[in-house]
Amino acid sequence: MFGNKNSGTPSAPNSLISNRINHGTVVQGTLESDGDLRIEGVIKGTLRTKSKVAVGATGLIEGDVHCKSADIEGRIVGDIEVSDVLTLKASAIVEGNIFTSKIVIENGAHFDGICNMGTKEKHQQHVIERTIPQYEEATV
Questions:
Q1: CB 7 within 8 A of CB 26
Q2: Contact, 76 vs 59, CB < 8 A?
Q3: Which contacts of 103-109 are long-range, i.e. CB under 8 A and separated by 24 or more positions?
Q4: Which of 45, 48, 76, 90 satisfies CB 3.0 to 4.6 Å to 108 for a cystine?
Q5: Does residue 113 have a pLDDT over 70?
Q6: Distance between CA atoms of residues 100 and 5, nearest Å
Q7: For residue 118, what pLDDT is reported?
Q8: Residue 14 has what DSSP assignment?
Q9: Is this prediction's pTM over 0.90?
Q10: How far apart are the first and last CA of the chain?
Q11: What angle do CA 19, 25, 28 make, to 5 degrees?
Q12: What percent of the chain has pLDDT over 70?
């Protein structure tokens, strides 16, 4: 009645889509999702989502994370790229570089890497611009 007229099922917005990797589960390879992800188990590989990632206290990600926002209580070994807000809870352990627009770090969180405000591409472009020597034209 109120669903999409083109299909027999109503469409759900991405914010309502939720995925969970429970404690005792190991996923190897690239994991991609349009919806939110809650990680209590282990991911060995790259994680990409257009939404939020929550890594619980038992969660471990060995690989890079790309998402809109993230709350980290567990451990990440790899780079994190967050387009909005990254929150490192007191129990969080991050071993890798961070690229984010906003960051909140609670007392007790452990972070070993470089924090860059902005996207990874923006940071890489800035590094390239700084390393290319700038020459002025000489007038004769």
A1: no
A2: no
A3: 109/72
A4: 90
A5: yes
A6: 39
A7: 76
A8: G
A9: no
A10: 79
A11: 85
A12: 72
